[in-house]
Amino acid sequence: MPDSESFRTPAAVELSLLNVSTEFGDDLEGVSLGAGTTIYDLNGEELFERVPIEGRAGVPAFADIARNPAMGAILMGVSRGIRWDEAALLQQAREAAGVRKAQREADSVRFVAYSFPKVAVQFLADGKEIALLELWTWQPVPRRRRSKEDGPSNFERWSFLDENPVDDLAKRRARFRARVRELEPIGDRLTDVVMTIDRARLLDRLGISLNDLLFDTRELHFTTRNGDHHPCLELRGQETNVWCVGASVQMVLDFYRYQYGQVRLAQELGLGTVSNPNGLPHSRDNDVVTTLEKLSNQSLDATLTQNPTWNLFRDEIRANRPVISFVPGHSRVVAGYTRSTFMTLINLTPFRGLLVYDPWPPNAGVITRWENWATHSYTQGFTSHVTLV
Fold first, then answer.
1. Which region, left, alpha or beta, applies to residue 60 given φ > 0 means left and ψ of -120 to 50 means alpha?
2. I need a surface site. Which of 68, 82, 281, 348 has the fewest CB within 10 A?
3. Before 158, cis peptide (omega within 30)?
4. Cβ(119)–Cβ(112) under 8 Å?
5. What is the DSSP string of 7-63?
6. Peptide bond into 370 cis (omega under 30)
7. Burial group, residue 165, by CB count within 10 angstroms (0-12, 13-18, 19+)
8. What is the pLDDT of residues 338-349, one digit of tens each?
């Protein structure tokens, strides 16, 4: 496995190029990448590093940088709203597991993507798991309860490397390596400046200007007239560790000004109660469509699309409509997109990213701006539009 430093430079190049495109405003200007935390797959292989973004006061943020080519891209995404503090999280995990038990039995502790992109802390003794606690809730992640052919439920472990199709992983690795080759000559020209994000220095070193930038981007507003008001979607954290679908439906209904709490939505979707919750079975995915239409009094016409394409997300956001996005074992809401490149960097494939409002972790949620399109398997997309009367 390549060391983390070999991918830090191209990841910083990606961040720098995004910063030049002004998609982050000034959120990244002047920041640097802090010390990373390795996130492992359930099978023990390294997947990616979670790296705090340092050097600027305000909203905390972190970047996910791939260490395994199977992730499909170097810079996987940048998330805001949660401070990543490895030492503090490990201390909380040890307290939740029971300090005496952890000290007596565990000989190693690591962070694990138990259901990518969700993360847990795993306690090991002689290489065998003795506890797997979900990050922030510190609830034990259940043991496997399904066959390999079945997809994971909303709070269930699954191995990214062992359970993704072999052909898909091969395509991801090829895409990752192609991106590394594209970025290497740019990184060679930026070695002494890239680790601190600086728009002016990057443009000067590459000999390009903002006139060379080609980008297409949009995020949801109250209407398609963007200039006179701010973006318009509210993040809702899931109220249990299996109610990501309920929280996603809540965000979409809120956008259309139909306000329902997650307890009511759980009743409609069959998600149980706060004290005894359950996720949405795969056989009932279409209940999302039914619920969106019913609770809007049929004012919304909702549609389920299997394996949604980039164009579906792009076109819905252009039409000012949020999209519920299912990935294996999880549900989120897409509220924006970006596609950017530079005319003078002719060998550089455009970066494509989604603005994702993720209801996990429970009771908080996180906004990812931008989630690299190349890093996820988008299994279902739920669109909705207002019917004309």
1. beta
2. 281
3. no
4. yes
5. HHHHHHHHHHHHHHTTTTTTSSTT-EE---EEEE-TTS-EEEEEEEEES--SS-EEE
6. yes
7. exposed
8. 998 887 776 788
Q: Please choose, from the candidates 72, 73, 145, 82, the residue with its C-alpha nearest in 3D space to the C-alpha of residue 119.
A: 82
- The first and second tokens of residue 269, run together, are 């979707």
Q: What pLDDT band is residue 147 in, cutting at 50, 70 and 90?
A: low
The pair of three-digit structure tokens given for residue 223, joined into one six-digit string: 């209407």
Distance CA 231, CA 225 (A): 11
- Alpha-carbon distance of 77 to 274, in angstroms, equals 31
Helix (H) or strand (E) holding 337: strand 330-342
Q: Is the pTM higher than 0.85?
A: yes
Type of residue found at 66: A
- The span from the CA of 308 to the CA of 290, in Å, is 19
Q: Is 352 helix (H, G, I), strand (E, B) or coil?
A: strand
Question: What is the distance between the alpha carbons of residues 354 and 334, in angstroms, rounded to a whole number?
Answer: 7
How many C-beta atoms lie closer than 10 Å to residue 377's C-beta? 15
Question: How many CA atoms are closer than 13 Å to the CA of 94, on its beta-carbon side?
Answer: 17
Residue tagged 């996820």 (tokens): 376
Mean pLDDT of the 102-110 span: 82
Amino acid at site 310: W
Joined tokens for residue 190: 């930026």
Sole residue written with tokens 């080609």 = 214
- The phi and psi torsions of 223 (rounded to 5 degrees) equal -135, 180
Assess whether pLDDT exceeds 70 at residue 306. yes
